[in-house]
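--- STAGE predict ---
source: upstream dedup step, 1 unique chain passed
mode: sequence only
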Amino acid sequence: MTTLRFVEHLHEVVGEVDVVLSDIWGVVHNGLESFPDACAALHAFRERGGTVILITNAPRPADSVQRQLRKLHVPDGTYDAIVSSGDLTRHFVAEHPGQKIFWLGPERDGSIYRGLDTKLVPIEQADYIVCTGLFDDETESAEDYRAMLLAARERRLPLVCANPDIVVERGDRLIYCAGAVAELYRELGGEVVFYGKPHRPIYERAVALATEQRGRPTPLKRVLAIGDSVRTDLAGAHGFGIDCLFVTRGIHAGDFEGIDQLDPASVKELFGHPPLALMRELRW
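--- STAGE serialize ---
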């Protein structure tokens, strides 16, 4: 294993790349504001003939994600298409008509059920749980749900996790996501169905969208993932068989403060499977 160094510009690593699968939160914005240099970099890649699919663990449909991006002033020209874990969760719900759902998550995620024939009920009446997040992610953690999850486990309720992220940036803070609740439920012996990174179906959908956009399939060796999470972005890319450009400004920023390169032992400790390269923040 060689020393892993930082690169300064996206164009240094995309000479043989046709498709970029880019994370959103932590790469393109931080939940409160967009990163103009990152948007410009993805736009520049598209201008030279590349295709950009935004791949996100947002527990909402792609059109809702797009509306949020527009509010944060992420230009539409930054990307070609969006695939979200919310879309895949909606597909699961649609394939289980007539079953009753206990929804664990904030009201802002309600668009995940738009247009679906769903019956939301108290947990005591539910056939399964859909978790899009915590009811109040500003003040709560997964431990606040331990008693509820123990009761759900006793009833053997499956939990569908619509966002496998454990934490995400909101401005300069880290807040808990649905993945934290799902992992606790799994530790307690509950059954969890995950949709989103690092699990394969979201990558398969993203590559299918890229094929639609380009009119032809792209070899995986010419596909590059970009992300800021070891657990979701890097592990997901490795599991799917594609390279990953790792952005360090996100949830792992503290691990890279003051570091210009990583020796092989540090690479193994931090990443397990190393990324293609490191970049502090995405820029062309």
